[in-house]
Amino acid sequence: DVAASMVGNIENLVPLTSGQYTMGSLILMVSYGACFAFIIYFVLSSFQLAPRYRVVPVMSAIVMASAGLNLMREFSLWEASFAFDGAMFQPLAEGNVFTNAFRYGNWTITVPILLTQLPIAFALSRPDLHKRAFRMSIPAVLMIWTGLYGQFGETGDFTRLNIWGVISTIFFVWMLIEVRGVISAAVKNSPPQLVAWPKNIWWYFLATWGIYPIAYALPQLGQTGDLVVVRQLLYSIADITTKLVYGIILSRYVLRRSALEGYVPAAEALETSPLGSQ
Ligand code: RET
């Protein structure tokens, strides 16, 4: 079906009510706003940490900037792609095609960073850390690119969507096996007071990364305005939880770990020293 494959995503197939259209704008706007605001949070958190962990929230700040710019672009594309005809917001306004494909491009940058944060936060040794970051990132990138190719099939008969969805899921499982290896190493290597953290992070990771394949498969339930909005909402929940909340969790973990390893932030060291009390 040539016409259907040209429009790429279901966003270009269905007219939206003004409520649905506004919800779509709002979801994208809140998401990029949150990303940009949290750049500041992550940069400031890094100052409280032992030097070896400072890069963990800095990497979250980079992910926030990258995802924020991507979501801002999705937002302006959303605004440009629909035109009000007096009753409904019609897609393909002035030839503009909305696409979720840019998200997959963005994940190519952010996903390897998110994965590499784990072995750094868990203080794995340098050569082990590099090896594991690499071994997680290879299946992750293959998962994203096969999914990118497949998602263009969501407006056709779903053959392409499903075949590439299955191939992508195989890479996802491979990636999860590598992530699980990092979690096991972290459990062994964790201070006893913090040993629950890597275990809980594993379940959090599965629950939140698992939202993306659901969003990918969703167009098969039908092509309606509600589904378009629900899918953008799912993407946003996934974006906020896998990047922003995940970054907060890892920052809290390395903060506790810094303290347990005897690190005292500079300002506190000054307060408790004879010099500071003068
Ligand atoms: C795809 C295609 C369908 C099958 C699977 C997928 C998994 C995607 C995932 C994406 C994670 C993205 C993140 C982005 C953060 O910036 C590609 C949708 C399994 C897990 C964490």
Quick structural gist:
The protein has 10 helices and 2 strands; from the N terminus they run H-H-H-E-E-H-H-H-H-H-H-H. With 278 residues, it is mainly alpha-helical. It has a two-stranded antiparallel sheet.
Task: Explain how this protein is built.
The protein is an all-alpha fold. Helix content is 73%, strand content 1%. It is built from 10 helices and 2 strands; from the N terminus they run H-H-H-E-E-H-H-H-H-H-H-H. It has a two-stranded antiparallel ribbon. A hairpin with a 4-residue loop joins strand 1 (83-84) and strand 2 (89-90). Helix 2 runs parallel beside helix 9, helix 4 packs parallel to helix 9 and helix 6 (159-189) packs antiparallel against helix 7 (196-209). The longest helix has 36 residues, at 225-260. The chain is globular, with a radius of gyration of 21 Å. The model has no long low-confidence stretch (mean pLDDT 94). Bound molecules: retinal. Retinal binds next to helix 4, helix 5, helix 6, helix 8 and helix 9. Retinal (RET) binds at residues 67, 107, 110-111, 114, 143-144, 147, 165, 168-169, 172, 209, 212-213, 216, 242-243.
N-to-C CA distance = 78 Å
> What overall form do the CA principal axes indicate?
globular
Strand order of the largest sheet: 1-2
Q: Structural class, judged by helices and strands?
A: mainly alpha
Low-confidence sequence ranges: none
Strand content: under 5%
| Percent range of helical residues | over 70%
Sequence-ordered SSE layout with sheet pairings:
Blueprint: H1 2-7, H2 18-46, H3 55-81, E1 83-84, E2 89-90, H4 101-121, H5 126-151, H6 159-189, H7 196-209, H8 211-217, H9 225-260, H10 266-272
Antiparallel strand pairs: 1-2
Helix pairs in contact: 2-3, 2-9, 3-4, 3-9, 4-5, 4-9, 5-6, 6-7, 7-9, 8-9
The chain binds retinal (RET).
